Amino acid sequence: MTTYLFTPPAVQSVAIQGKAERFPINRLFFVGRNYHAHAVEMGKPVDKSVERPFYFTKAPQTLTPSGATVAYPPETSNYHFEMELVVAIGKAGFRVQAENAHEVIYGYAAGLDMTRRDLQLVARDKGRPWDLGKDIEEGSVCADIVPLPGVVIDNGAIALEVNGVTKQNSDVNKLIWNIREIIADLSLFYHLQPGDLIYTGTPEGVGAVVAGDQITGHVDLGAAGVTRVALTVGAAE
Ligand code: MN
Description:
- It is built from four helices and 18 strands.
- The chain is mainly beta.
- 38% of the residues are buried.
């Protein structure tokens, strides 16, 4: 039996709608600039004919359940919401063909890719890694996973409100690289594993929150219903 110097960190997991079992987390992948209008608002338009998608990762320890209240994070004065559709991977896949991408999908959830925008833009413009801007404690919010094994979501409203006021309002059909294309491309670089989550990118309308703000968002999954995410931003520590 293996013994450890101290208690090993807990396995991160996400609740699954309608199930007692939880979804254990392996890795968190994020697609950058995957809606045209958001790429334009960031000053970096995307030409799909000559570009490929790009990715960043966050530690699984950044995961936070929907409904949580989190402290306004340190070392930022421009903390942004990004509303995203999250794909939960349920089967291993390497060099997955786009037409077979549905086979590795377990389900979906609404998620928030919280971002220290000030630090991200400094890093971006200096050619530095994005970790301090993106890999934020309590900064990867994920709703309960809706099991939809083998189903590809190609469209559906995606929207976010702050204190009840709509800030983001788009449709998953505006993804530059759709879910089949993301799984095919990402699996060229990684052996996808059960427990991987892929945050698929945010539409336009990102913006800052302050202590006391209540974020709500949803993605329409068609016949499977609506997945909803919520986050309350508390005072800084
Ligand atoms: Mn994002």
